[in-house]
Amino acid sequence: MLKHLYDTDCVTWSPQGKLFQVEYAMEAVKQGSICLGLKSNENVVLCSLKRQPSELAGYQEKQFKIDDHMAIAIAGLTADARVLCKYMRTECLEYKYTYESHHPVGRLVFKVAEKSQHKTQSGAKRPYGVGLLVAGIDPNGVHLFETCPSGNYYEYKCQAIGSRSQAARTYFESWFHLFEKSTLEQLILHGLSALKKAIMEDEELNERNVEVGILGKNQKFVHLNAQELKDYIAKLETFNANTQIQQE
Amino acid sequence: MIFNSEFSGQQQHTTQPIVTGGSVIALAYKGGVVVGADTLCSYGSMADFKNVEKIAQVSKNTIYVSSGEFSDFQQVVRELAKIDRSALQYDDGVHPSPRDYGNYLARLSYKRRCKINPLYLQNVIAGFHNGERYLGLVDIYGTYLESNFVTTGFASYFCKAIISNYWNENCTLDQAKQVIRECFKVLFCRDCRAHDVIQLAYVDEQGTHIEQPERVETKWDFSGFKNRANEKLHTQ
Fold first, then answer.
1. Do A98 and B104 touch (CB under 8 A)?
2. Of B96, B121, B99, the residue nearest B37 (C-alpha)
3. Which of B49, B113, B150, B190 is deepest in the core (most CB within 10 A)?
4. Which residues of B touch A107 (CB under 8 A)?
């Protein structure tokens, strides 16, 4: 991206009506490693590709549980993500303390969006450099939201954000009409197939660099463990997206 | 000038209720919950306000009544209605369930109790949500209980036996209403601060229905009253 005039701070509009600082913040999200989410009538699945800063390091976690009924996958500045994660967890706890029930998902995303927007309208602040995919279940149904540094939020049937996410989105465009009625296993396999489209030629999916989290109407948020990941990745070889069954 | 310290600008603590409402009785029935309360607010022992419609609808499927200090009741109604209204600003169509209200009121009551300035109330929250009926009691200390039947005030002493004998949780609406009417008859006879005009309200799948106040039937034409047998003895 070329440098522009009018991009010094958030309180300066460009003549074309853009806030460049906000747009640059969205770039930070696009540089993060990919994470995607997809939902059916009963379940939401989050899949992410974890990055390893060096061979000596562990892999950076990208999915965080907010509450039993809600989880996020992040792309962008992990430090900023931690702040939003803490905020969401605190809000859920307070809601539970007061009402003994789960925080409605859309409402929490709205609060995060308001918080994010606040950072785009001050001379002394910068936007959060992280995009969240928020998966949640509440009385209104099964939800998948995306939040942006700009303070916008959108609800999706399936979405991918981060590096090379367009490849995953292209996969989704072909097959998302099947997701509503998919079983949990089919949903996971679709998610991993989409993830596979987005990795580089010399990379491969394995149980160390992939993170899968699942959430359902009767399923609290849980990560798949290493063995389960291995099994699903193995099943990818013979998964037919159209029929959603294993081919021989 | 003599300053009465009770009326200085310091924070006051509620030590006694002034204008009080009477007992509340609520029963679950097959398909919903029915609540009954009388229409009297007493000023100490004076029956001051005799046609007060107390049963408040706080949301589409939740009703709230309480016995105790009436101004506290009115304030709580405002607080609960505030929650429902502020839910509108999120544009997501999600409204608090009856249980949410019950828990919120329990937290509110407990907070006030911890400051030794209680909401001088025994509260009943009744509702119907997602195919399930809900009935909760929150007392002056913030104790929260969910139950199939709930009584406050004197009804807790006089009416539990009647309820045990004539009610079960799967009775019809009319049966439950009849049990409540019987209870208020007994209360009118024995509780000095009770009134014979009551109001019933029920919540079911279709929503809340608050009925017009009705007078409970009480019998005063006993021959002993009419013939004044006692008085004759003394004058003769």
1. yes
2. B121
3. B150
4. 90, 92, 94
Instruction: Give the C-alpha distances (Å, rounded to integers) separating A62 from A51, A210, B14.
Output: 9, 10, 52
Size of interface A-B (CB pairs under 8 A): 35
**Chain A residues interacting with chain B (CB cutoff of 8 angstroms):** 97-101, 104, 106-107, 110, 138-140
Q: What's CA A99's distance to the chain center, in Å?
A: 28
Is B208 noted as a catalytic residue in this protein?
Answer: no
* A16 in a structural domain: no
Listed by start position, the domains of chain B span 18-235
Residues of chain B found within 8 Å of residue A138, distances taken between Cβ atoms: 94
Residue A5, domain member (yes or no):
no
Report whether A159 contacts A144 (CB < 8 A).
yes
Q: Tell me the C-alpha distance between A55 and A167, whole Å.
A: 27
Q: B18-235, which class in CATH?
A: alpha beta
pLDDT given at position B107: 97
CA A48 to CA A34: how far, in whole Å?
Answer: 6
- Give the model confidence (pLDDT) of A121-161 as tens digits: 988 889 999 999 999 999 889 999 999 999 999 999 999 99
A223 - beta bridge partners?
Answer: A213
Task: Write the pLDDT tens digit of every residue in B4-24.
Answer: 555 566 778 888 999 999 999
Assembly ipTM? 0.79
Q: Whole domain around residue A70: which residue ranges?
A: 35-50+58-244
For chain A, say whether B61 makes contact (Cβ under 8 Å): no
Which burial class, exposed, middle or buried, applies to B131 when counting CB atoms under 10 A from its CB (0-12, 13-18, 19+)?
Answer: exposed
The letter for the amino acid at A201 is E
Structural domain count of chain A: 1
* CA–CA separation, A42 and A103 (whole Å): 18
CATH for A231: 3.60.20.10
Q: In this structure, is residue A15 part of a structural domain?
A: no
DSSP state of B168: -
Does residue A157 fall inside a structural domain? Answer: yes
